[in-house]
Amino acid sequence: MIAPTARNDLILIGAFAAAVLTAPLWLAPIGAGYPDLLQKFAIYGLFAIGFNILFGFTGYLSFGHAAFLGVGSYAAVWSFKLLTMNVLPAVFFAVLVSGLFALAIGFISLRRTGIYFSILTLAFAQMSYNLAYSVLTPITNGETGLQLTTSDPRILDKMAGIDYGAALPTTDLFGTEMTGYPGFYFCAVLMIIGFVIAVRIARSPFGTMLRAIKSNQNRLNYTGINTRPYALAAFVISGMYAGLAGALLACTDPLAGAERMQWTASGEVVLMTILGGAGTLLGPVFGAGVIKYFENIFSAFNHDILMSIFDFLPGWLQGIVVTVSGLFVGEGWHLTLGALFMIIVIFLPGGLMEGVGRIAKLFRKDGGAANSSVSTAPGE
Amino acid sequence: MTSILQVKNVNKSFGGLKALNNVELSVEQGTVHAIIGPNGAGKSTLLNCFVGRLTPDTGTVDFDGTSLLGKQPHEINQVGVSRVFQTPEIFGDLSLVENVMIPTLARRDGAFKLNPWQRVDSIAEVREKAEHLLADVDLQDKKDMIANSLSRGDKRRLELAMCLVQDPKLLLLDEPTAGMSRADTNKTIDLLKRIGERGITKIVIEHDMHVVFSLANKISVMAQGTVIAEGKPEQIKGDPRVQEAYLGGAHL
Prior knowledge:
- The complex is a heterodimer.
- By secondary structure, chain A is mostly helical.
- Chain A has helices spanning about 5-20, 25, 35-55, 65-80, 85-110, 115-135, 135-140, 155-160, 180-205, 205-220, 225-250, 265-275, 285-300, 305-310, 315-325, 335-345, 350-360; strands spanning about 145, 170-175, 175, 255.
- Chain A has one domain.
- By secondary structure, chain B is α/β, with parallel strands linked by helices.
- Chain B has two domains: about 1-80 and about 170-250, P-loop containing nucleotide triphosphate hydrolases (Rossmann fold); about 90-165, no CATH class.
- The mean pLDDT of chain B is about 90.
């Protein structure tokens, strides 16, 4: 464990920022160096960082965070439609709207703890999902999803004299289109800011109270702390992160659909956080990266690619191996994810970060004294 | 002497069971007041009425001139009542020094403060106070350890430090030596005597007569939900009603 001093945190943040900004270079050799996937890494990394503030720090397992992701996307697309194609107002409104939404849902859900809290959040998210499909169709455009049209008002753009003519407009940041690498760097910068905020929260008295809630909420109440507003603040902050992630999804690809709010999407961020290491600072980003990487790489494998990989085997064996491994790739990549998740949870309950910690310990002679649990050492 | 805690006519029933029956209690400032009684006498129920975990059906509980009834546990703590639990309630995943810093922050910043931008380790006064209290309970060598790794006796002392750091006006101790070895018990008695010098009023619930008679200035004996006797330790020792109810006629 590295002591969480101000200096070490600066090193951590610096190293994180450098690694994220140079990601196109060092991820290229493993086939992940293209902008679409890099954008996903940054967006879902941000989503998981925020989720970790609620789940990892405070110990409240929300199964409905995709609702905030969806709300963020809708808010951003509406900003594109009504105001301007510039991404900054979209991001601002998405964070604002999802924050208010989280305030309302958190206020009700946080009346309960443990499994009841999880079920309440799940219920709210599924309600949002179904509402988006049915009665809220005027806002969400139902099954088709909310899309840009050439006839959108875009008041601010009109005032600034920007005319997209007959073509469908594209999102931009003061003229720079938010696709490809610029899109990735925009998401990456916001993720780094999000990471810095998470580090500051973890080191603050506020963050200490959040960890105390996770550790022993009863004692904290009898210690003179009103735990509800602390938990609610954590809930709203993590909802705002989710809204920001949703907005970025819309910035890089300006449409929003209700399926973004489905429970599978909520479950995915839980997996990312646990896989990487709940309660650690870097873990959720790792977890998000690993899951999105596997999703892209393994789901792209098909029968022909497998045949060529196992070409060196004798014909009959090649057939068997390809049939078996075929179950784990393509449409079946979830099977790989499931197996990986089981292995991690059984052998590394603290997630990938625990694995990193164990390896680091092997290389350190004085590792014996640093035998503390991962959850208490978010900077590990 | 002025009374800091006034309990009048308190009743509490759980279904058909009358757990507290017209309990009257007056705790004087600066004293150690022990509440003893057999299992099921209502001692812990009474304590729970003081800290906001339970609300009495009838009666009043006044602390330092204000009523404690209807207040949340954190509000009661903020007016100066701290509690040590029967099984130590600590922040098991956090370090010892963090365990003591949390109540210090609670006293300094109140029940809620949104300060996510300040570094907790930069607040020197809070850390110093916490480390000072850990030294008072002889845990300074273990201050960076995780609280769950402590022995039961050490956890108890840690919890005591967490309460003392708040400079409470009233400290409630629910069986502070339960499950401890004789040696640990004696250490705890010494510690409680030492903190007695700070002038904190204490209510002690205890089964161990050795502990009670070493510490208490005044003893209330409860049986079947009501206070059957009250007085100085020597008066209680000789009271035949107490021996009948509590000790089944055996001699102390």
